[in-house]
Amino acid sequence: MPFNFEDNIKNATVLLQEVAAELDTDDMNKAGRIFRAVLHAMRDRLPVPEAVHFASQLPVFWKGIYFDQYDLNKVPVRIRDAHEWVNYIRSKNAFAANNDFQQDEEITAAFRSVFQVLERNMNDGQLQKAKESLQQDIQELLAA
Known about the structure:
Globin-like; mainly alpha; 71% helix; DUF2267 domain-containing protein; DUF2267; DUF2267_sf
């Protein structure tokens, strides 16, 4: 079976466009930075087997971004509460956080937006496992 680069690029682009639409932005670079920050935060919070299963449902391009700078020796990261979670997502967008995230509420909204896109594009069971790995007050950020 041949590897079709065009289809992989298309799948990645469609997913990014969905994220941008949820974030209500036309800036694809900003949407990409935010998507990457949330993916990296989720990845780092999950135990390794769950992180790998989570990634298996992402388009090839996003799998590469998801695993970029992944350090198996430093996961899962302990996050004690929603405030720490928000700051962790901010840290994953370190170079542009001041532009992308002016307020904590923007990070919370970005987390919720990315999760909504993932809900539409991933297997419910795998996403539910990832959600359940988060503390209750972090899960509540998704319901707000």
